[in-house]
Q: What sequence folds into this?
């Protein structure tokens, strides 16, 4: 969420109410990647976390994710965003059917994050590695947003979502669809 862009309050409420399995957000604060996520009892609880992130992040980019579980336990650990490293995080909308989860404990996204943690830390700027990751995500018809500790973000499959009022929604049906990512900002596509 860049400065001077407000996420419509109704979009935040709709996202929270339509996705009952947790919520989270990530933002940059003084070159540190910050992630807050959990199982919030009410929109008011989530809203306090969001408002604090807007303030602490000096109105910089914020990625918001509301979860509808498709695999893994319904708990805070499976909520998005996920840290890939101290300086890189990600959120995902879709199902990675190409991954076989080793347990019912973790979601398919958590499994992908474990693979990504084994890559070189600069994999987003390595054109060959990024191409392979992007190809996998596109074949799965998923959407992924990566964010760095500097607040820069990269959206994979952004055309499967929609930009509206300065915000990117991971589905064109953001007012009624379950499981969406809300992203505001200027996209840095590699």
A:
């Amino acid at each position: 969420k860049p400065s001077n862009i407000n996420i419509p309050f109704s979009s935040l409420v709709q996202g929270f109410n339509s996705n009952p399995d947790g919520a989270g957000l990530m933002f940059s604060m003084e070159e540190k990647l910050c992630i807050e996520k959990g199982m919030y009892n009410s929109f008011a609880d989530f809203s306090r976390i969001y408002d604090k992130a807007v303030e602490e992040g000096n109105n910089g980019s914020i990625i918001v994710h509301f979860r509808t579980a498709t695999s893994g336990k319904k708990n805070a650990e499976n909520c998005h965003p996920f840290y890939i490293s101290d300086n890189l995080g990600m959120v995902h909308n879709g199902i990675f059917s190409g991954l076989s989860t080793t347990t019912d404990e973790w979601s398919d996204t958590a499994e992908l994050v474990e693979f990504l943690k084994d890559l070189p830390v600069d994999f987003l700027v390595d054109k060959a590695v990024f191409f392979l990751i992007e190809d996998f995500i596109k074949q799965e018809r998923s959407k992924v947003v990566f964010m760095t500790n500097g607040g820069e973000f990269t959206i994979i499959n952004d055309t499967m979502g929609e930009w509206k009022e300065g915000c990117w929604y991971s589905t064109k049906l953001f007012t009624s669809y379950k499981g969406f990512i809300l992203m505001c900002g200027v996209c840095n596509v590699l």
The chain has four helices and ten strands.
